[in-house]
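A further point concerns the way the authors explain their paired sequence and structure data. The central task, working out the structure tokens from the amino acid sequence alone, is never made concrete. I therefore recommend that a typical entry be quoted early in the introduction. An entry of this sort, consisting of the sequence and the corresponding backbone structure tokens, reads as follows:
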Amino acid sequence: MTFNVNKPKNVAMTLARTAQMIRNSGGYFSGDETSGNFSGNGVEGRYEVRDRIKIYITKKPFFYPASVVESHIRDYFRSA
């Protein structure tokens, strides 16, 4: 599953907030302003920052609908 998120004006601040939110919910986040990885609650993925933030979901529990996973990940990566 792949989708895009609009690139914020302050990528560093947005990714710092994203990392904090994911870690606070018991997940893992590693990355910088170009790319990284994240996981939590059975969902694993990575991101790349270009003209937009491209999100790749590489693993998700079968009982989570793709639309729900995408919605939650979008919330994490929205502009700070």
The CA atoms of residues 28 and 39 lie 5 Å apart. The chain has one domain: 2-77. The beta strands are 2-6, 28-31, 35-40, 43-49, 52-59.
